[in-house]
């Protein structure tokens, strides 16, 4: 098990106690970054981040998984959050993403970087509507082939958020 996975596993139940999900853990250049989001998907407040950060720090001190000196950085995953788990792709079906593949999808198309809309997920296969060679196409690739992926903030997404906010205020 990688250090990131061990840390996520150790902190997962504490995150839930604070109403948070851990989106991603990364340890790089003496910085341990933990991205979180609220379980109910509402915005994460600074006070919630601070409380979770203190709790995480205490647990990490006791567990002592990282022997070197490091900086702990806990923050909201944000609107352009990374998609890390296969379930993220299902959850954000219909949303625009920017991704990089580990290897090209096939021998005819050597592209590794794609932008487009997630249209569906079947098993471990992800389908993306994207423009290739000036034509709108649906391409597919295996989840295991994704190096990194994050949500894109588009005009349509902002309009949708504003519309939802307006509807919430009417209630």
β-strand percent reads 35-45%
Number of strands: 8
CA radius of gyration is 18 Å
Q: Number of helix segments?
A: 4
The major pleated sheet works out as: 5 strands, antiparallel
Decide which structural class fits the backbone: alpha+beta
Q: What's the CATH superfamily of the largest domain, by name? A: K homology (KH) domain
- Based on Cα principal axes, name the global outline: globular
Portion in helices: 25-40%
* Name of the CATH architecture of the largest domain: 2-Layer Sandwich
Mean pLDDT: 91
> Which regions have little confidence, pLDDT < 50, spanning 5+ residues?
none
CATH top level class name of the largest domain: Alpha Beta
Number of domains: 2
Order of helices and strands: HEEHEHEEEEEH
Measured distance between first and last alpha carbons: 47 Å
Q: What strand order characterises the main sheet?
A: 7-6-5-4-8
Write up what this structure looks like.
The protein is of the alpha+beta class and 171 residues long. It folds into two domains: 3-76, GMP Synthetase, Chain A, domain 3 (2-Layer Sandwich); 86-151, SH3 type barrels, CATH 2.30.30. The chain has four helices and eight strands. The strands form two sheets. It has a five-stranded antiparallel beta sheet, with no helix packed on it. Strands 1-2-3 form a three-stranded mixed beta sheet, with helices on one face. The longest helix has 18 residues, at 46-63. The chain starts with a helix and ends with a helix. The mean pLDDT is 91.
